[in-house]
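Thread title: Can someone regenerate the structure for this chain?

I was given the following input by a collaborator and told the matching structure tokens would be attached. They weren't. Posting the sequence so someone can regenerate them.
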Amino acid sequence: MGIKDNDSGYLDTKARIMAAIRGKGYSPPATQREPDPPAEAIPADEDSPDSEPVEEPTEQELLEAAGIPSHVAAAIAAPDEGAPGELPEVGADANGAPGAPSRALALRTDLLPPGAGVLCALEDDPGLYCMQSYLASRVSGDSKRTMLQSLQRVARMLNTTPDKIAWHKLRFQHTDAIRAKLLDCGYSRATVMMTLAGLKGVLRQAKRLGLMSVEDYDRATDWDPATGVSLPPGRELLAVDIQSIQAYLGQLEGTAYGAYLEAVFALCLGLGLRGDEASNVLTVGLDLGKATLKLLGKGHKEDEVPLGPAESRALSSWLAWRKFFERRHRVPHLLLRVQPNDTVMKSRPTCDRKQLEYLCRRVAREAGVKHFSPHDLRRTFCTRAIRESGGDLATVQRLMRHADIGTTKRYDRRSDEERHAARQKWTIWRPPEPVEPEPLEEPEPPESPPETRKPGFRLLPGGKT
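Best answer:
Regenerated them for you:
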């Protein structure tokens, strides 16, 4: 983030510095000095040394001469680009002069993800315009970064960069070859589907701009879906991991940094918020009286989540510390970027997704547990909620704010042993208990018939006749 982005009174600061320079005896360059009144034109003698043009000192040189560091002077002397979000007129050059041909229209660099550049003119480079307009149409910054990474992945496979690809000229033979190469490179099914989604988005933008016919678009995107099943990413924090983290946070009790970490884990683990949601929560959205928190979720959807007793205590403690930083850092965000020495960064006072990832790595290292990410905290929240609710996926889906219950199922990290144990606790079909038959009385053996002999035979010893 540059100096202009940090200081809202950039123009006033620049004017004061230039006024101070003039007070020291320096004269501003010709571009800053008021024009002299018209005078009679005096023809200069070409052979006279006085006719040689005198180079006026640049604004940066004057600032450096006044004792301002070079990198600060370079930022102040840079040409003004207008306020963030201010769009130049169509056909205007960098200085705003109308009628000059230019490639920069409609969007500034800070409105696009890193590496996307300034939106070019459609007639100059249609392929680049399709990519940049598609990225600019994404709602959240995280979605822009993900789609840009997908397009960069496609470009690396083609040994080029995304701005050099004529996206509007891709046909089915090209997209099918890209899909096949993604599978051959060993990417997971989720990565392949995400990459193809970014590719399809650019082609859809080309169709909307009239650079590709509907028939060509339908054919180019008629690829077979990536098949296969991959293991779910991430992990669930075990009970021993949470105990180790709580023990580490207990050592920081009574410090602003410790209250800050408690608030981070209350949002990410206690409420299951996404990283971008937790970093963008506003202070006005927190209502401790009603135990609710209003936030702007994925897809710019406003929602209100309930707070538990532990989360309310952690956020209340953090608000008490946050009041000490409001004098210098008047920002609407709930989370500030607190350092281990209980100070807030002046240049970047608010917390973002990268800061949350760094905090997770640091806490994992200090607590002696396996590495985890901010989204692993959300997975842990979902798994614990399913376990504690007895498998009530409908309630957990509302807590996770998922549009599809199938997404909630993918967050379930319960082990097979837990599933087997849960299966033994309930029975859907119960057969009738078997009835033992009454024992039957054995009949008495019949009396043996009397021995009869045949006439004319005599029984000899040994049973012979």
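The chain has three domains: 1-34+54-86, 109-220, 239-415.
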